[in-house]
Specification:
64% of the residues lie in helices and 0% in strands. The protein has 143 residues and is mainly alpha-helical.
Length: 143
């Protein structure tokens, strides 16, 4: 979800697996294993973004990011496509915030995973939600 291109996604997955393998010895069981694993993965992804010097004009939008059930209406498909299109316009930290939120994490968990305060996570998340709404409105879709 954090990378647009399939090759970049595969590279990031390999980097995450490598970092998990290297840092496993430092896991101290102070948190759940899944939380530790998620934190290492997210930090690796954010570091990967900083290292990558991507061309700003490179934009790939994959129309079929998720297979939509046949029972879903055309309206839901349109909403999902617009949402993904809007998310692709966010910066890397904003993408991380939205995906952590969509995964059901609390503000406290998001803050912990990103290494920021809970208040900062809440403010950034609200601003990111507003930004997504504005982007979607620029596509001519009203809520």
């Amino acid at each position: 979800m954090y990378m647009d291109d399939i090759e970049d996604q595969n590279d990031l997955v390999q980097e995450i697996v490598l970092q998990l393998w290297k840092s496993y010895e430092r896991f101290q069981s102070k948190s759940q294993f899944s939380t530790w694993m998620y934190r290492v993965s997210l930090n690796t992804a954010l570091t990967y973004f900083k290292k990558e010097k991507k061309k700003s004009d490179r934009y790939t939008f994959l129309e079929n990011l998720d297979k939509v059930d046949e029972t879903d209406t055309l309206e839901k498909e349109t909403q999902l496509e617009l949402f993904y299109k809007a998310v692709h316009e966010l910066n890397k930290v904003e993408k991380a915030l939205i995906f952590l939120f969509l995964e059901g994490q609390s503000h406290k968990e998001i803050a912990s995973n990103l290494g920021i305060t809970e208040v900062n996570a809440r403010v950034k998340l609200n601003r990111t939600k507003e930004k997504i709404q504005i982007i979607i409105k620029t596509y001519g879709y009203e809520f």
